[in-house]
Amino acid sequence: MSRGLQVGDRSRLSFLSRPHPMLQRFWDVAGAVSIRTKIMGIVLALVLLLGAGVTVQVRMALLRVLTQQLREQSVSLARDLAARSTDPLLIHDLYDILQILRETKANNPDVRYAFIVDAQGRVVAHTFGEGFPRGLDRANFASGEMHHHTVALTTEEGMVWDTAVPIFDGRAGTARVGLSEERLRATVNAMTAQLLLTTALVSVAGIAAATLLTWLLTRPIHRLVQATEAVRRGDYTPRVGRWANDELGELADAFNAMTADLAAAQAERQERERLRAYYLRQIIVAQEEERKRIARELHDETGQALASLMVGLRNVEEAPTPEEVRRRLADLRALSASTLENVRRLALELRPSVLDDLGLAAALRRYVHEYAARFQKPVDLQVIGLDDGQRLSPEVETALYRIVQEALTNAAKYAQAEHISVLLECHGGQVSAIVEDDGRGFDAENVLRSGLSANRLGIYGMRERAELVGGTLTIESQEGRGTTVYVRVPASPQENRVTT
Amino acid sequence: MRRAKSLSLVSIVSWILLAVLAGCAAPGAGPMVRLHDLQPLPEEPPTDVIPLRVAVAAVISPKGNVESYTPLLEYLSRRLGRPVEMVQRRTYAEVNDLIRTGEVDLAFVCTSAYVAGQREFGMQLLAAPQVNGETTYRSYLIVPADSPARTMADLRGKVFAFTDPMSHTGRNYPVWLVRQWGEEPETFFARTFFTYSHDDAIRAVAEGLADGATVDSLVYDFALARDPSLAQRVKVIHRSMPFGAPPVVVGPEARPQLKAELADLILNLDKSAEGQAILRTLGVDRFVPVDDSAYDSVRQIERELRR
């Protein structure tokens, strides 16, 4: 018995996941019809089921009740007949008996026949006119002590309930009454037909209602499908009207919201693409400009200085006296020193090796020192939470260095500030830098919002650098109120998040 | 599992179908009779043994007659060795006809029926009942127990119940009474009707259907004996002169031997215990021979009525 799980067990265990093939076939066919047909099918099936069920139940109940009533009526009629015909039978008043029988038949539409049998079993009077059905007199019997005796006779007209009641305790004879089920059956059949007709009418109404219902449901669905197709083609303009305050209405709302969001996202995407393309162009332009600047600076200053140095050296050759030689050599030394200083500065500006070698804190100290000397403006630098020699990732260090560099350059070039401070703080996995000056300030909001201008490319570049390493950059500035640049980035670089 | 599912589905469907059909089809439960197979009713097979037919007049109700006379008839049947049939009819006249034609062999008739029958076709006296030593009876005028009437005169303008149109005590006598005041029953009484039996007349008065009636004193006494509470519902306010009691008779063509046999049996009922029980059922002491002259007082009243 315990044979463990075997291959064939799958069919018994996974009955739900692998349905009966007939069921699957059924669903393949049934599921493929339109919603209208499905709804109509369900409505029709329900109405027919209800109608058929009710009809059957009511018919059976009515049949039962009416048959019982007919039986009881046959008993009461027969007993009444027996009572009324006692004296006439005893005094042999056959005419009176016949009258009573005829009245019984005439006053009760269900009575098929009535007759009286004497104590010897001979038929004394009956309602059949000429002749009497063979065997009917023997078909039922009631002995003197019985209250009544009823049998169901099968006749060519259907079923007849025949009741026999003894007359005068059987001493005078027996009264017999037969009630036909014909009217009863006609009533039940009429009622059945009525119920079936009602079922049919309700079915028709149900079909109409189902049609209306499907129209109500499928129209908005069609609209949604059309709108979805448009969206698929890239057209984000269609909106679907809110048909009703139901689930379809919610779907329409969700669809509209989604489409609006998709359109906004696309617009943003396009905007960002444009921006990127612009950035790229600008970067190339900036790169070339920078090269041009370096080339010019090299040519103008350094080249010029070296040319002067060459002229000076020739002058030294032509110096009349050794004191003149020494004096001219001293001049040349000074020139060389300043040229070397310029070259170093240039190199520092381009790419400080200290950034690569010693880290952000040290590089910033060096830059600030150079900056203060160059622009004759003091810069207050504070570094918290980051020791010299403590390194962050190269992307983060570079980004922060360039941002601070740009901010300080802007402060020198545009702000005409007197006091500038830089705060570098590393805390809880985040590095933040704040560059603050008390200069002219600018309308940061407007500039940031109003699109690009070549002067402010630097600001976009700063923001872009910050976002590239997963950080944020904010600039607060107002005319006449100074400028503050906040930048915060994660200490270790993260994926560039899509900004909304 | 698959087979079980389809089997159960089939069985469910077939049960539903059966239930529906059961409602439609007629359950042929009982025996078959063809109502259109009409045959003439069989004739009376000729019997070897001819029953003795005894008529009982409608002095009391037909059912009452059956109760009272069945013991006597069964006794006669045993003693004569042939079946005995009781024959009743609605009116005295019909019974007289049966006696006249010989369709009945013996009859218990009322007094006026005998008088008429004797006159018209020679009805023969066999015996008369003796009650309380008398072979006579009277007509009692009865009214409801709470009625203020004390004589027939007090019943003027009231509802009166007769028994049979031919009844002496039940009709002839009250009409004769009314005629003493020069009136007719149609004008004297507000309404009259026939009950065709004396015990029905008593019942009519007891139940207030009639304000008064005259009934056979024998029947009245017998009814009172059977149901003493009757005294609380009816009372007798007038008793007539005596008349000859309702006799036992045979027809004019009765075979003398049969007549003798019947007379012997009936007149000697009181000689045996069985017979005495039968007599008690009838409310009679014994049957005695009687002379035709006993009925002259009845004839007298009838003559006066015919005038």
Keyword list:
heterodimer, A: 500 residues, alpha+beta, 5-stranded antiparallel sheet, 5-stranded mixed sheet, 13 helices, 11 strands, B: 307 residues, alpha/beta, 43% helix, globular
Bulk shape of chain A: rod-shaped
> What is the spatial order of strands in the main beta sheet of chain A?
2-1-6-5-4
Low-pLDDT parts of chain B are none
Beta-strand residue percentage of chain B: 15-25%
Largest sheet of chain B: 6 strands, mixed
Helix-strand string of chain B? HEEHEHEHEEEEHHEHEHEEEHHEH
Distance between the termini of chain A: 66 Å
Largest interface: A-B, 40 and 33 residues
Structural class of chain B: alpha/beta
Explain this structure to me?
- The complex is a heterodimer of chains A (500) and B (307).
- Chain A has 13 helices and eleven strands.
- With 500 residues, chain A is α+β, with helices and mostly antiparallel strands.
- A five-stranded antiparallel β-sheet of chain A has the order 2-1-6-5-4. In chain A, strands 7-8-9-11-10 form a five-stranded mixed β-sheet.
- In chain A, a hairpin with a 5-residue loop joins β5 (158-167) and β6.
- The longest helix of chain A has 71 residues, at 247-317.
- The two termini of chain A are 66 Å apart.
- Residues 496-500 of chain A have low confidence and may be disordered.
- Chain B is of the alpha/beta class.
- Chain B contains eleven helices and 14 strands.
- In chain B, β2 (52-56), α2 (62-80) and β3 form a beta-alpha-beta unit.
- The A-B interface holds A 12, 20, 56, 59-60, 63, 86-87, 90-93, 112-113, 122-123, 128, 130-136, 139, 151-160, 168, 171-172, 181, 185 and B 1-2, 19-20, 22-23, 26-41, 44, 58, 61-63, 65-66, 87-90.
- β3 of chain A pairs antiparallel with β1 of chain B, so a sheet runs across the interface.
